[in-house]
Amino acid sequence: MNAEVLQSALAEYFAPWVQALGLRVASFDEGSVTLRLPQSDSLSRIGGMLCGQAMMAAADTAMVLALINQFGEFRPCTTVQMNTSFLKPLSKQDALVQARIVRAGKSLAFGEIDIRGADDGKSACRATTTYALL
């Protein structure tokens, strides 16, 4: 796997509005993928706070890329469950969205996502996910 394959998956498998988030592959390793979500006025609420909808979309997207990384290719999948906790506002900085595979079986995959400030490193959002592998 390489960063170019993961980055190109964003254009190939995701809707235009997801692509409009401007996500970039920041890093990856055997069990995780980290995306950078750039700070944007179009994704922010009053005071420059990143909106929860953008964080949830970025988290879901990062986990699909983590699955591509895990399997070495895209496998059709769908989100079955996503539990999200917003810990603190994320304001006026890019977000780092790290998706980690907890377990990937034959029909289900489980993951955890941490969204933190790119500048301060503080966790702003945590999510757990379950995906059906089709």
In CATH terms, what is the fold-level topology?
Answer: Thiol Ester Dehydrase, Chain A
Q: Radius of gyration, rounded?
A: 14 Å
Shape: globular
Structural class determined from secondary elements: alpha+beta
Span between termini:
21 Å
Largest sheet, described in full? 6 strands, antiparallel
Question: Mind telling me which CATH architecture this is?
Answer: Roll
Averaged pLDDT: 97
Strand content: 35-45%
Name of the CATH superfamily = Hotdog Thioesterase
List SSEs in N-to-C order. Answer: HHEEHEEEE
Low-confidence segments: none
> How many domain modules?
1
Q: How helix-rich are the residues, as a percent range?
A: 25-40%
How large is the count of helical segments?
A: 3
> Taking strands numbered 1, 2, ... along the chain, how are they ordered across the largest sheet?
1-2-4-5-6-3
In the CATH scheme, the class would be Alpha Beta
Number of strands: 6
Keywords: Hydrolase
Pfam families: 4HBT
Protein name: PaaI family thioesterase
GO molecular function: fatty acyl-CoA hydrolase activity
